[in-house]
Amino acid sequence: MSAVAEPLIDYLRQLERQGETHVHLDGRSRLILREFFVRSRGRSSSLVSQPQAAAVIAETKVEETKVRVAELASKPAVVIPTSEAPVQQAPLSKSLEGLKQQIAEDSGLKSLGTLRDKLVFSEGEVTSDVLLVGEAPSYYDESNGKPFSGPAGKKMGAILKAMGLNREEVYMTNMVKYRPAMANQTTNTRKPNADEIQASIRYLMAEIEAVKPKVIIVLGATAAKSLIGADVPVANMLGQFHKVAGVPVRATYHPSYLLHAGATDEKRAVWKDMLAVMELLEMPISEKQRGFFKKK
Predict the structure, then answer these.
(1) Does 281 share its domain with 179?
(2) Which among 43, 61, 92, 95 is most buried, taking Cβ atoms within 10 Å?
(3) Helices 194-211 and 96-104 meet at what angle, rounded to 10?
């Protein structure tokens, strides 16, 4: 196998192991991959240059294409031109402390220029059956150095207490480990963008592999869409279990959303999700717990 092609093939196989079945390709990527395919069949063809690819794309309406990861990973290896070679990423640590260090040293995250400087890693029991995933650190998370701090954290703590759990018994983390930056930023926080999530999600997958939870609770639309990856509206993800890397995943509202007045229906939906998680884990459920937020 070509030393240059190997990182791409390894990356595709890693995605496949994580449960990914498709990758998105734009027009330029399809042109490049077609050239690789032609070369693998032994036919002569001049590689489409970047200017040529740009010209073709400019003249046609380009639509994203979904390509099966397994198909790409199984293609014969060919020599990839150096200018198009992917940057080889170092293998991720299997320990959480190692992952934390790798995130802190990740130049790719820093080069985005859209994230603040303070790393907010995880908190809680590293062998927990329950793994909570939020979107990105808030002002309070950044100030305290812990995920799920401040009012939203207190709300999450109350939900866990109602389940018969406490913060120390679960593993809490965020999709993106740095607070997204904004102009004239004070206590306000925005949702992470696609580039920030793409640069961060491999670390989350490594966390899941290290913790080995029995269930994942993903909080908030952005985190749910990014982790589950289903091509459906977020509303259609609610009220059911999904699978990510072989682990059941339940998507629900972020606790910060429940702080808004009049969110009774959403609170009821969240509690229904928590009951489903408790049933999955075979936790004892009292009649009082089943009666929380029940319509009169």
Answers:
(1) yes
(2) 92
(3) 160
Section 146-173 average pLDDT: 96
Identity of residue 9:
I
* 171 shares a domain with 282: yes
DSSP-based helix, strand, coil % in the chain, nearest 5 = 45, 15, 40
Alpha-carbon gap, residue 223 to 134, rounded angstroms: 6
In this predicted structure, what is the pLDDT of residue 232? 72
No. of helices (H) and no. of strands (E), the chain: 12, 10
Question: What is the rounded CA–CA span in Å between residue 165 and residue 157?
Answer: 9
pLDDT digits (tens, 9 = 90+) for 132-157: 999 999 999 999 999 999 999 999 99
Measured in whole angstroms, the distance separating CA 87 from the mean position of its chain's CA atoms is 20
User: In this structure, are 66 and 191 located in the same domain?
Assistant: no
Whether residue 176 lies inside any domain: the answer is yes
Give the chain's domain count.
2
Q: Which domain holds residue 46?
A: 6-84
Which of the given ranges, 80-84, 205-209, 229-233, has the highest pLDDT on average? 205-209
Q: Which of 6-10, 229-233, 239-243, 256-260 has the highest mean pLDDT?
A: 239-243
pTM (two decimals)? 0.70
